């Protein structure tokens, strides 16, 4: 399954690594692609992972989920 999440506040490689690392800790998350230019985070999962859980994980890293 593929989910796209729009995130504000990511500006650098550290931001990318923080979001990627945190999301990969969620059970079922297989791959994370962060596009700093657009603010899009693409999450591929092998099983159902709620959008709310992904958003909470990103926000716990200090970024704002907008959609």
From TrEMBL:
Pfam families for the chain: HMA
Annotated keywords: Chaperone, Copper, Cytoplasm, Metal-binding
GO BP field: copper ion transport
Limits of the HMA domain: 1-66
Coarse class of the protein's main subcellular location: cytoplasm
GO cellular component terms listed in the entry, alphabetical order: cytoplasm
Xref: CDD domains: HMA
Organism domain of life: Bacteria
Localisation: Cytoplasm
GO MF annotation terms: copper ion binding
UniProt xrefs under PROSITE patterns: HMA_1, HMA_2
Protein name per its UniProtKB record: Copper chaperone CopZ
Biological source species: Halobacillus halophilus (strain ATCC 35676 / DSM 2266 / JCM 20832 / KCTC 3685 / LMG 17431 / NBRC 102448 / NCIMB 2269)
Gene, per the UniProt record: copZ2
